[in-house]
Amino acid sequence: MKHQYMIVVAAVLSLLITACGSITRIEEDRYTITEVDSLITEQVTNQPNDRNNGIIYPSSRTVSVERNMLQYDSVETREYPGFIRLAAWEGVGLIGSQLSGNSTQTGLFGMFMDLDELLFGIKPDPEGNKLFAGYQYKVGIGEWKLNFLGDDPNWTYGLTAWERFAPDDDAENTLTGIGVMSIRKRYYFRSKIPYVAVTPGFHVAFVPSAYAHLNVAAEIGSLAGVNLRLTAGYVYGQTSLFSGESRGVNFPYLGVGVGLLDFLNQEDELEVEWKDHEHSGWEIGALDFVFISSSADSSFFSRKNANADKQSPINGFSAHALNAKVAIPALDYRFYVGTSAMSFIIAGVREYALACLPIRVGYFWQPGSGKFTVEPFAEVAFAPSSYIQIGVRAALPFNNQLGLTVLAAYMSGTPASPENFDLVGLPQVSRDFSVFYAGIGLSVFDKIFGRGDLRYGRNLPHE
Asked: Which CATH architecture has domain 278-453?
């Protein structure tokens, strides 16, 4: 009961701190506009008969004056970013953090998990990758301007919704924080995009683990929400503040990290309206999910039916999460290079691939004046699965929250399961596969920009 109470307190505290730092700052100018109009009408009526001009004759001219006054209120609204940093995800691979366990085998950025462990619960070889002993994950990161030490710039206070430190694969050494609070100071070495900065910081969490974390990070970004970090730090705390089975944990580390949907503003950019902000990418999005039909001889959705050959016309799905496509400043900037936090493609029971940070190169074509796009692309992934696919994607956004996606591609690769399992858990003879697939689906929280939105070639302050 005490644990549940503390989690509720942490959630309320997180909401209160978030309320103090908004995403958008709104300014309004209210005016009362007065319009005054005067209408002067002159009318001369000639008499139909002759008149004696030798005597004084009354004039037929009439003059009328009409005055009108109209008053109404006018409101001019301007929207500005209210945050220094806002990020969906950050992953860090830890070097030198190992305590009583073996390496977590999650590799660079802490994101390249073993496929058999992830899908089938089979532990990897402990003698595998030992350079990166553990990982740090952060979800829901916000930083806002902190007026600290007078007018000293680039101080921020922040909140992370959820954070996990795993120095090794021993679960008893894992630290988890909800509502992690932080104070940071950035020293910029480059004031143009991509920014280069060194950022020392102090972080503290109380539930469910209690720990303090001191670190310094060298950062480069943000390009379409992609940031790279080289960090060094020290963590000191205990795995639970109230549990009798708590273990004290402390370790130094070096780390290599990446942030996705990770947006950074300098302080002067807080005074630039949203409509005038500078964008480096053609598209950013939270999730691209497509149901697909493929040339595979089995369907993922019929995998539990041993007698089913290919009953469903839908073989599987394609999912890309936390996507970014950075415009290449050449040839009218239509070519791009992009990545995703995760790519999970299932074209059949044996034809599947799970990859982190695949590299995608493509051409962004927008026929007409709308945001409808046609995008030929090539994508290559290295781990955990390795594959290459060539295809075309069409996207029609309904709004900034939802859009329609049509996808067709040819993919060749290997799942990279050491045990060579299919998705039913049965061993296979061949590790490689090749498949055609096509499908239709939705993009969620997907933002597509136009050519006029890109910062290149516009002589903007941070170009």
From this structure: Beta Barrel (2.40)
